[in-house]
Amino acid sequence: MTNPERIGWIGTGRMGHAMATRLLTDGRDVHVWNRTRAKAEDLQALGATVVNSVAELADRDIVFTMVSADADLLEVTLGDGGLLRQPTAPDYLVDSSSVSAEASQLVREAATDRGTSLLVCPVSGNAKVVKAGRLSIAASGPQGAFTIIEPLLRVIAESISYVGDGDLARLVKIAHNIFLGVVTQSLAEITVLAERGGVSRSAFLGFLNQSVMGSTFTRYKSPALVNLDLTPTFTTALLGKDLDLGLVAGHELKVPLPLADATQQLVQQAIEHGHGDTDFAALILEVARGAGIELAPENVATNDGLGSTRAGLHAYSQRGTTNE
Q1: Gap between the Cα atoms of 266 and 271, Å rounded
Q2: pLDDT tens digits, residue range 199-252?
Q3: Whether residue 105 is found in the same domain as residue 195
Q4: Which of 29, 34, 57, 315 allows an S-S link to 40, with CB 3.0 to 4.6 Å?
Q5: Domain identity same for 186 and 288
Q6: To the nearest 5 percent, what fractions of the chain are helix, strand and coil?
Q7: Range of the domain at 80
Q8: What is the CA radius of gyration of the chain?
Q9: What is the model's pTM?
């Protein structure tokens, strides 16, 4: 097949919903399944067909999966009623989930047995980034399959990087998220340091974001850090999971990762203090705790660098958010 047009989509959480939306607004034929059907039903207004089972997607040309963890991916592909257990199978399977190499290999083997080409396509960004058209994708798998699927990926993301065969894109994503964790912890530390010295978070981050050290990331996390809006874009628990995967990769590849190790312990501490289901910007609350500071939302309109300015309408206070 040279032009897969009939698309299936599994998983409409924050990221999956935003990514599927871009395909639908581009006029693509997309059938969607989500474990909680209600989270997918609004896509019908954009032209999606919401199905009642994964099995109903097996005859699609291409199926995308965006789920949370190993168990979820294995269930929707290899479990009872799974995509690759049906009489027919899609020509292409594109997985954007953050899962282990072991789980990915099981899916790859089953896909190969069914004549399905698996492309691993993890992403960099959150739902806001997707909506702004700024998403990045690292892709790996058969190069011929990538060439065919690339036009669809470019509907979803601004930047597409083919990094090689097999699961190499998963290693790229793990390395990326190690950096994400280390940078976020460092950003939280220096922001609290400046505040302890008398500089508001908005003033400090405003300076940083216009300096050579500013980045797309520091800009779009600034509203959360300034206004303590911890509505999750990527949870602390998911960051902890990816740091765990990174440390496993470091052990297997014999690469010491002392900064990642230290960050993983701090992230785990944040999870234990009740921040597992909040945005990972909650790391700033743990830094403040260590400094004996109780942060308050500044309620300052802060540009996220993605075309919007937020003033922390869902502000989150440190008081009452821990297990203590």
Answers
A1: 9
A2: 999 999 999 999 999 999 999 999 999 999 999 989 999 999 999 999 999 999
A3: no
A4: 34
A5: yes
A6: 50, 15, 35
A7: 6-166
A8: 20
A9: 0.86
